Amino acid sequence: MLVVYHGPGATKEIAGLGVLFRANGRGLSVRHMRFKQAPKGEPSGDDLALEKLGIPSHVIDAPTEDAAVELWSKAVRHVSIVQEGVLVLEGLLDAIAEGWLSGAQVSETLSGKDSLLHVIVTGEKAPSELLESADLISNMRAIKQRGSDAPVIAGIDY
Amino acid sequence: MTDPQPPKGLVIIHTGDGKGKTTAALGLMVRAWGQGKSVKMFQFLKHTGARFGEHRAAEKVGISIESRGDGFTWLSKDMDETTAIAVDQWAHCKTAIEDGETDLIILDEATYPVTYGWLDADEVASTIANRPSHVHVVVTGRDAHEKLVAIADVVTEMEDIKHPYRDQGIKAQPGLDF
Question: ipTM greater than 0.85, yes or no?
Fold first, then answer.
């Protein structure tokens, strides 16, 4: 299954974390890759949780083209070798939107994955090629949100 | 600079027809747990004693997920029983919300018992609105009642753009969907 969670809200990122938790509970092989900076605030609750859960995670320190390309090559390798489980590619859509990765190439690579490997891709906007090849797409739309001056909360925002 | 007040607890709703509502709530639960916050999830509708991926994972790390339900309402033979289970589950939720011992409380699929009238919308909304100020409450489910939306700080609609179980007749996948 190729799943795309996109939209403007922060909720899409935590959906990936939820899938990892659930799949880990089932004993599936799981892996996390983050193509953007961790949500604002330190230390990241997501990273602390992934470590406590023993879920392998690859993150880039700063969002640059080189870092995104290098991490994507890890994802390509994972998809070519691993035949089942869950791979979360957090913020991959944003790296594509930056022009650092090709939407067509990403779509082609992910379309070639084994059907028992579930890949979750998140970010703000998805390129048309990926929308075409995805099995499941949810758009996270903010109906009501806090003001931009609202305090950042540990455990909620990061 | 002083920082005398802990941040105010939020009410967060994940609603809409698309997938990802419970999953994102689980993610938030895991994030808060990663920060050392105390977390609890209460699931409505899902079978009492369900052993989904989230239950297995939570059990391993000592997170409490309490499910009280008899599955899906359209399969229920005894609506009084279904209502009674929801009322009982709500009593557990209410205690946890009011005692202030848990930082983040997730009321999973809680929109349905409110929409179906098994629980009183005013009672649920006022209990959440009057919680201890540091407590965060997350509610998931389709068609969130307007009284719940009214007391929420954050409402996200998961919009269904493509749904494999509808569009392609694919079955829900263990580990991914439950």
Answer: yes
